[in-house]
What we know:
single chain, about 375 residues, alpha+beta, Heat Shock Protein 90, SH3 type barrels, five-stranded mixed β-sheet, about 30% strand
Amino acid sequence: MKTFKISVVNxxxxxxxxxxxxxxxxxxxxxxVRIYVGETSDKIIYEKIVNEAESIIKKxxxxxxxxxxxxxxxxxxxxxxxxxRLAQKFNKKIKVVVxxxxxxxxxxxxxxxxxPLVHIVxxxxxxxxxxxxxxxxxGKDPIGTILIKASRSGPxxxxxxxxxxxxxxxxxxxxKAIEKGIFxxxxxxxxxxxxxxxxxxxxxxSTKEKITEVSGRGVGLDVVKKKVxxxxxxxxxxxxxxxxxxxxxxLPLEASVINCLVVKDNELLWGIPINKVKYxxxxxxxxxxxxxxxxxxxxxxxxxxxxxxxxxIVLVEKNKDSIxxxxxxxxxxxxxxxxxxxxxTLMNNIVDTVNGIALFQGKExxxxxxxxxx
Length: 374
């Protein structure tokens, strides 16, 4: 007898009501369009109805998409429990700091990331964090810290696991890689961090002399990388010997609706997330500096920092302590855009400041700016 697997998603009643009400608005608007098309050809009225329809459709997309989402909190709670359980087993003292657990993502992403993240956290406790006596001898707090942090930037999710433990010894990794035949012996004379990562993510690689039930730093990272690659993401590994290790997973999410200030510069359209826009100035004097809240800012272009031309200056918040003044040719206005991750075919042709693209009014591409990188 054939069996079927049924996936069940719990949905709050108010979420369904919101989606249902939005659908009703859309149906009513479509009815207006039918009446209008049959009675008049007034372009202004037509544009008004089309713009309203577009706005409602985007609201509908957002509401329906939200129903598919679930918070990262249960996953992060599991990671916390895993870390504390292992720390107790190895007589280590740790505190686990969690940030961004209230971010909602597709349930499928959480299912795909659970095993890789559990593995990364286990490694952080097992071979990242030192025992209290060792940490004290190094002048560290006897209690080690593991940070599990999630953040969203446009259509991308970033999850970072950072510990303040031993860090990765690059020379030890390279020596072990040479022993295993991954690299020729000459590699020990000159190697890069990319070589270290290549070794760490090679199937079966480990710097541990004795394999235990808990994998050592590097064991299984090939599986983590494979899973991240399958999801179309990136795996970043940073470490400083004696100070700790940071492993970051960056994943493209499905399209998301983002309110952006659309500007034109160098004949291209750019979208700046509206929540990061602090101020817009129509600059007719082509001033070389601008003062904002006591800060002296030098306006510059997105593509050419030496180009001082442009009719407008847009102040963008890079982070809590930094503001960037961008000079642009034209300010189009505020729009709600359906933003998608940058396709892999375009990735090599896109500047680092771009983290997504959108279609503007059905015909032109808008490049979504990552404020933290401008």
